[in-house]
Amino acid sequence: MMKAALALTAALPLMLVACGSADEGPIRRGPVSSSSESPASVDERHAISMAVEQAASQLNGAGMTFMVLGPAQSHSGSVDSSGGQRSYDDSPLRIASNTKTFVAVAALKLVESGALELDRPIRSDLPARLVSLLESGGYDLDAITLRMLLNHTSGIPDHAQTSVYFQDILDDPSREWSRAEQLEIAMDVAERIGDPGERFSYSDTGYILVGAMIEKATDESLGSAVRALAYPNLGLLDTWWEALEPEPDGVSERFDQQAFGGPLLRIHPSVDLYGGGGLVSTVGDLAYFHAAAAKGDLLDDPALNAALITPTQLSRETGNAYGMGFFVREYAGETCYEHSGFWGTLAVYCPETNVTVTSAVTDAEAGFRALRPFTEAAIEAVR
Known about the structure:
Strand content: 15-25%
Order of helices and strands: EEHEEEHHHHHHHEEEEHHHEEEEHH
Structural class: alpha+beta
CATH superfamily of the largest domain: DD-peptidase/beta-lactamase superfamily
Mean pLDDT: 91
CATH class of the largest domain: Alpha Beta
Low-confidence stretches: 1-12, 29-36
């Protein structure tokens, strides 16, 4: 893939933008090289470069990496706001809740095969230990379905949003968590949401239950099962389930993610591992998966593809339109499908113009606010 480094003044952070064919698929890119470009390609790359420069002014010291898949051209690059010379292009990173899109696709593949059912009570599809914990919390497992878990209407609260959970992470970042321990926090500490099917309320706990259902239905680890179900043929060379799968050979140095005042890697991956998060990927791999899922390329049943991207009325009422693994949001005047991740990732696919933008920052607290304006500018640049 052809690359070209931007000529910038010394006062600006290092920015690199690469340009190539949008249909190349996920590949590991080599060093910067030069080649001839059409006038349209030059104009498009210049517009992307301007979007990157604007984003750099909003990063507050964070670094950024991105991938833009346009109808004809792809663009990738990075920003090192520290003034150093590091390129983050192709760096693997924890994608946190962007994992939910992968998990939703995997669960729906099992619905297609008959191993799971969207509207069957979840009692028989969960391990006995989790059933016991949910019942001890007063939850009626004959009223909760996989559909409700996937679209966040189950009434099960989110352990990850409790102050107790955050404080435990800060007190002992290296602690190894189990799925059952996280569910216990949701049962014992989190505020009850409501009856099943009554309200939309985003819940990592719901997705760790989906992860358990996938494991039970397949008799595989979550990493192996999701790989086989959700993306067996996409060629995602730099995507794996942290702590559950080995790091692939030949991956680049990890993205320098920061959280709570220090390196993210000091925090044990089990903090966000069991279905609400857990995957490590690159912005390139994430772009190709996110687009394929949103386009309906990964499921055979049109009704299930529609369920992924069609928001429930309950979610619309909250102003957070959500289907199953996708939020629905407007960018540049177009209806698009997105998901973000707590550690500072964002993936967006816009069907009308066939544009996908994925991006990540090294420090979500400092720089995440730059990602949506960058995404909007990138969409306008390539459509």
